[in-house]
Structures are given as structure tokens and as C-alpha cells.
Specification:
Layout (H helix, E strand, L loop, with lengths): L1 H112 L1 H23 L1
């Protein structure tokens, strides 16, 4: 009899206990979810930072490569320019020398044609003959 009277009371208490347990587990579940969410956000932030750092490094490397290539290109162009100038100077000198030679040749030809040159030649010839004749007499 006593048990039957206390049954609703026990049920009531059991129900209360169950609700408390459920509320407790629900709170714990929420706390765990909150913690997990925080951890996830931290992980995401960390990975994002790392991604950005990698991107920055890659960009730096790319710029360095570009600069290096640009420098090499400029050096090559400078060398080509120097070589070209040397070639041009050399050919210019040769042209001038050829001009000079041609001019000298022309001058020599002109002097051969002059009267005084011919007279000088004649005089030298006579002198040579004279010395030879003198030698023969001795």
C-alpha cells in the first residue's frame, strides 16, 4: 500500500532527476561544441596565416627571380652593345687606314708624274753611269 502511495512521488523525483541529467548533458554537449568551435576557428586562423606567409614568400621568390632575369638580360645587352661598339670602331679605323693608304698611293703616283721627279731620276741615272765608267777606267 505504501508503495502505491509513493509511486507518483517517486516518478516525479525520477522525472526531475532525469531532467537534471538531461540538462547537465545538454550543457556539457553545448560546452564541448563551443570548445570544438573555438579550436576549429584557431586551426583555421593558423592555416590561413600560414597560407598567407607561404604566398608572401612565394611572391618574394618570384620577384627575386624576375629581378635576376632582368639583371642578366641587361648585362647581356650591355655586353652586346660593347662588342658592337668595338666592331664599329675597328671597322672605322680600318676604313680610315684604307683611305690613308689610298691617298698615299695617289700622292706617289702624282709625284712620279711631276717634272722635278723625272729630272731627279735622270740625274741619279747619270751619276750612277759616271761612277761606273770611272770604276772601269781604274
Amino acid at each position: 500500500n505504501v508503495n502505491h502511495k509513493n509511486k507518483p512521488l517517486r516518478e516525479k523525483e525520477n522525472h526531475k532527476k532525469k531532467q537534471l541529467r538531461e540538462r547537465k548533458s545538454h550543457r556539457q554537449k553545448q560546452l564541448r561544441a563551443k570548445e570544438n568551435h573555438k579550436k576549429k576557428q584557431l586551426r583555421e586562423r593558423k592555416s590561413h596565416r600560414q597560407k598567407q606567409l607561404r604566398a608572401k614568400e612565394n611572391h618574394k621568390k618570384k620577384q627575386l627571380r624576375k629581378r635576376k632575369i632582368h639583371r642578366q638580360k641587361q648585362l647581356r645587352e650591355k655586353e652586346h652593345h660593347k662588342k658592337k661598339q668595338l666592331r664599329e670602331r675597328k671597322s672605322h679605323r680600318q676604313k680610315q687606314l684604307m683611305k690613308k693608304r689610298g691617298h698615299r698611293k695617289k700622292q706617289q703616283e702624282q709625284t712620279r708624274k711631276t717634272r722635278s721627279y723625272k729630272k731627279k731620276k735622270k740625274r741619279n741615272k747619270k751619276q750612277k753611269n759616271h761612277t761606273r765608267v770611272m770604276q772601269d777606267k781604274l
